Amino acid sequence: MKKFVNDPANFVPEFMAGVLAANADLLEGNLEFQMIKRKTIDASKVAIVQGSGSGHEPAHVMAVGPGMLTAACQGPVFAAPPVDACYETIKAAATDAGVLVLVNNYQGDRMAWDMACEMAEAEGIKLKQFIINDDVAVQDSLYTVGRRGVAGNFFVMKAAGAAAEAGADLDAVYAVAEKVNANVRTMGVALTSCIPPQKGDVIFDIGDDEMEVGVGIHGEPGRERTKIKPADDITKLLYDAVQSDLPFSSGDRVALMVNGLGGTPPAELYVVYNKAAKLAAETGLTIARNYVGEYCTAIEMAGVSLTMLKLDAELEELLAAPAETACRIF
Amino acid sequence: MKKFVNDPANFVPEFMAGVLAANADLLEGNLEFQMIKRKTIDASKVAIVQGSGSGHEPAHVMAVGPGMLTAACQGPVFAAPPVDACYETIKAAATDAGVLVLVNNYQGDRMAWDMACEMAEAEGIKLKQFIINDDVAVQDSLYTVGRRGVAGNFFVMKAAGAAAEAGADLDAVYAVAEKVNANVRTMGVALTSCIPPQKGDVIFDIGDDEMEVGVGIHGEPGRERTKIKPADDITKLLYDAVQSDLPFSSGDRVALMVNGLGGTPPAELYVVYNKAAKLAAETGLTIARNYVGEYCTAIEMAGVSLTMLKLDAELEELLAAPAETACRIF
């Protein structure tokens, strides 16, 4: 296993301790619950929390900070956080203005957060829950009823976080999350599998000349297994799936993200962006904002996902607002 | 070859076209010479240029922009840029205040830049050349006489770039580069090789249970080939080599960088940072600034390097100054 790990059972709390050590002025943690929160929480503003399996960094704890999440918790690699961690995260973040709980659509996460939300509400905490499901690859999947939540999650966190920071109330912050999710679409492709530290082995087998089109961020099957194609052809596959789904139409202003799945280096992401930008121009789209980097990974999987978000004036302003988190990619 | 490439011969200009497309407001390029420059160059300020083989992104063209480089050119993957590209880059960047040419210490790069500098000086361009050699792993190497220039290069670009932006003259900007290089040390470790697109195969063989300690960013041999160790032990190997070399001593304020070599995901970098921060505390160092991410890669190599820079008030201020480049990691 070619990884920087000590005892695999400690992988998650150890990387979280590193995040805390590197951001001691901004963040504090409760590693018993694998939870990280802002050091300073404004009680008058809506809090936003999220939590899911680890292995998708910078999501989720590296997105905690002013302008993004208020707190987040991590499960084991590729497994939902336990209910008590979700509950403690809501409690740690809760403000008078209420809590928006952002959940990526996976059955494990939804069960944990549903119970945690019930427990928190029973204690009088005001909250709303919102489900993110931007992945166009498959309708139902190995771990979901309905579509999966993947890299489009970044835009929900960013826009809702900016709205909360600006003082919007819980209904208004929820409406922002709803607007982003309604207008964002993603599809990914994997060239390799990846190795969760505690498993110590790949999560799926794939031939030396094969790729998985529409892969999930836990290696779930996508639309098809095909031979590897040139980068431009792969990009067109992803672009067409994403563009046609909303659909994105001539005249739309969009945010375009090329997200690396963990093992694909920066230069290759820009090869993909180069083609995606041309395809967007052919459709008549204006790329008002672009994002090329690692936003939602699958540990060290070689692969990319392509996300487009249709913008309006409100969303453009929210995406442009400042944020300060452990990752510096906004 | 599990990569996002079209024709491997076009890999570099294609990724550069992507960088330009994503930063059209900030950058312009001349892809005939694989060169990218700032759109707006202030003739009254010192210009800073660099250029080396591709495959180390975000170095070098993704570090072009206000507060960092003025222009940069790329060679093929892991090969020096041709003399004419270096010459055109100097010419495109040159200002009345002069040009600082930053060269990482590799024989190929030095030959190309030496000739380009001579040609530019013959045309009356005022310039100084500075050689970066922060890698403590080996004294001479496969491609160098003396030490190699690796991730410490980032701090030279950042600090010299900030000094130039603030209006320092050529001698003063040179002195900043000299101060950074005198106070920065790096060592890396590789768990895997990597595949240059045009080669289509790994650049060295390494066993499933092996690592290369002190590896170069082109896969050059380092100090020793050993069995993979736990992350904390690897981190201590790197830290001890870096700390003892300057040496860094109790009471020093430092910048600490954990740099991913391209195939190592964010969570693993933070596992390494977590241990490095503890070791720095044991030495009595204060980590005034930290950098965890991809700053100087070796395509998709799984591995990390650890860099420390001893700070003074001037360097702290220069590192904290704003910069705007294709990569958003400052």
Describe this structure in words.
2 copies of one chain form a homodimer. Chain A has helices at 11-22, 83-93, 107-122, 153-165, 170-183, 231-245, 266-283, 313-320, and strands at residues 27-30, 35-38, 47-54, 71-77, 99-104, 127-132, 184-190, 210-213, 224-227, 253-260, 286-293, 303-310. Chain A has 330 residues and is of the alpha/beta class. Chain A folds into 2 domains: 14-183, Dihydroxyacetone kinase, domain 1 (Rossmann fold), CATH 3.40.50; 184-320, Dihydroxyacetone kinase, domain 2 (Hypothetical Protein Tm841, Chain: A,domain 3). In chain A, the strands form 2 sheets. A 6-stranded mixed beta sheet of chain A has the order 1-2-4-3-5-6, sandwiched between helices. In chain A, α7 (266-283) links the parallel β10 (253-260) and β11 (286-293). The longest helix of chain A is centred in the C-terminal third of the chain and has 18 residues, at 266-283. The radius of gyration of chain A is 19 Å and the shape is globular. The interface between A and B is large, with 58 and 58 residues. Chains A, B: GO terms for molecular function: glycerone kinase activity; phosphoenolpyruvate-glycerone phosphotransferase activity.
